[in-house]
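As practice, study what follows.
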Amino acid sequence: MNEKLQQQLHLVQNDLENKLLENKELLLEQNKQREQLLCSQEKLEKYFQDSKKAKAELKERDDELQLLRQQLAQQKAMFQPSESTGLHVAVSVNTFHVGNEVLVEQLQKVQNELEKLYFENQLLKRNGMNSTDRHSSSANQTFLYGAEDRVKKQLSYRLGNTVIQHSRSITGWLSMPFALGTEVKKFRTDKALQNSKAILPPIASYADAYKADEVKKHLSYRIGTVLIKCSKNPLSWPLLPVIMSRTIRSFRQDRAVLKAQVE
């Protein structure tokens, strides 16, 4: 009987010890979890503080950026003209250029009138007129006009005009030799028809002979003159592109000089 009681007591004691061990292990596990929770809370608090600090720094930098933008806008307003001022300047510049173009045209007209008066004076002198009876004789004198058309019908002008017209495209360049040959044939035909009619007076005797000199300054006449001159000397054929380039450059320089006289 006593042995059974001792055995039962021993079993109960073992159960209690096992439960105590289990409770200790559970308590240790709870303590470990509590420590992990505290550590996580500390990390979370640290992250929160860092985030708050970063937001504050970001706001400060944003304020500094806004301040810099305002200062930059003020500096632009101080050192750059406004839109209305810029528009006024642009209009003034355009007006200046337009004014220059008008002055060039006026200068050209004045030059043409002076040349016209000069040639009329030369014509009157050749006809034996003096300054006293100029007005009375000019009323009875028949003046010839059409010097400009006479020059444009010359071979030099026609060839130069053909070169310019066919130099605007690749197809034109390829067909240019044929076009020049055709123009020469037309010129010879027109010349033969003209020879069968009355002989025309010299261009210098025309009242508008000054216009003939103007046409001779055209690029078409200059190129045609160079082309005819080089065609007479086979040795100059390889140099024809260079000579034409110089002619074009000289034409542009003359126009630039005329424009510079006004500016």
